[in-house]
Structures are given as C-alpha cells and as structure tokens.
UniProtKB/TrEMBL annotation:
Keyword terms of this UniProt record: Ribonucleoprotein, Ribosomal protein
GO molecular function: structural constituent of ribosome
Record-level GO BP terms: translation
Keyword DNA repair: no
Organism: Lacrimispora amygdalina
Pfam families named in the record: Ribosomal_L25p, Ribosomal_TL5_C
Ranges where the Large ribosomal subunit protein bL25 beta domain occurs: 113-178
GO cellular component terms listed in the entry, alphabetical order: ribonucleoprotein complex; ribosome
Protein name per UniProt: 50S ribosomal protein L25/general stress protein Ctc
Coiled-coil boundaries: none
Keyword Ribosomal protein annotated: yes
Length: 191
C-alpha cells in the first residue's frame, strides 16, 4: 500500500489561494475519525498520486505523527486547465465494510481480432479494508470473436469476503465481429 505525506491545511488561505501556490486542498472523513480533517498536499504529489492510483484505491496518509489508512473517495479537476481542484479521502475502520470500486485492467487487448466492447470497467463492491481490491486483470490473448466476460468470470469477485453491488451475470466486456467487414459483405450480397 502506498504512503503519502500530507499536512494540515492552512485555514488562513482560501482554496483558490492554495491552488495558486501549487497546493491541493484535501479532506479526510469517516471511519473512526470524530470529525473530518482538512489537509493539503503539493500539486506534484497529487498529480503523481492520481496518475498511479484511482478512485477506490487504498492509501496510507502520514499526517504529523499519525498514519491514517484511507481510500481515495473523490477528486475533481478544473474544466479549463485540468488541474486538480481537490481530493477527498475516506478513513477506513478495519472492522467496518466500505463501498469501493475495483477497476478492470485489460491485458493483451492488441491481440483481439474483433471489436472489443467495454461495458463495465469499474465494479462496485463492499468489503472490509483488508479485503479491498484495487484492480483486476483480464488477459485477452487468444480470446475469439464471440467471447463474453461477466463479473462472475473474474475469480477475485467470487470471494465470499466481497459483497458485489452488481449481478454476477453483468457483462464486463465482449468481443464482436468487425462491423466494417459485415457491412462490406452486405453490400456485396446486394450487388
């Protein structure tokens, strides 16, 4: 699990002022915390964090003398310049189930001979923090046209420690015939 150092937010500066100085305002809430904690981190650290991890990813935040286990719950970027406006972290209680997302990573997609239809690339679930899943990998090498992968086909989601929030027969992806080839065949048949 990744660890990132953060500091308490400078309450004397507004969020806009912090962003102008290259600092991203953040918040930690939930879990066993009695109140939310306003924090801040350098923009470079925030960019690196969101490049490497996703919503639902588990991360440790080092704040002064304490370490808080959290998940990335939300983030927002500015529409105009794509800079991070804020990141929200949810503190995790080891004895309480938490809602999260597992991201589906496709491996060897370049070997797919048909059209790859991605249907459900984020799988919502609930689990205890120790059982959280950040990503699952689906290897597509050798998968023929007509292949359908459902949530139930991914072994990580068959654990009794994971409470899926979608049906196991929900389609994650499918491989169909190339459409332009079918259109060409139809045109040739019409002639």
């Amino acid at each position: 699990m990744d660890t990132i150092t953060v500091e308490k937010r400078n309450e004397q500066l507004k969020a806009k002022q912090l962003r102008r100085k290259g600092i991203v305002p953040c918040c930690i809430f939930g879990g066993s915390l009695p109140n939310s904690i306003s924090i801040q981190m350098e923009e470079k650290s925030a960019e690196k964090l969101l490049r490497k991890l996703r919503l639902g990813s588990k991360i440790q935040l080092k704040l002064e003398d304490q370490t808080i286990i959290t998940q990335i719950k939300d983030s927002r970027r500015c529409f105009a310049d794509s800079k991070i406006e804020y990141i929200d972290f949810q503190a995790l209680d080891p004895k309480t189930k938490v809602n999260s997302l597992a991201h589906v990573i496709l491996e060897n997609a370049e070997f797919v001979t048909g059209v790859l239809d991605k249907m459900l690339m984020e799988i919502p679930y609930a689990s205890l923090p120790e059982d959280m899943i950040d990503t699952v990998t689906v290897d597509l090498e050798g998968k023929p046209v007509g292949t359908i992968v459902t949530v139930g086909d991914i072994p990580e989601f068959l654990s009794d420690r994971i409470d899926l929030q979608v049906e196991t027969d929900s389609i994650v992806l499918r491989i169909t015939e190339k459409r332009y080839a079918a259109a060409t065949d139809t045109e040739q048949a019409a002639e």
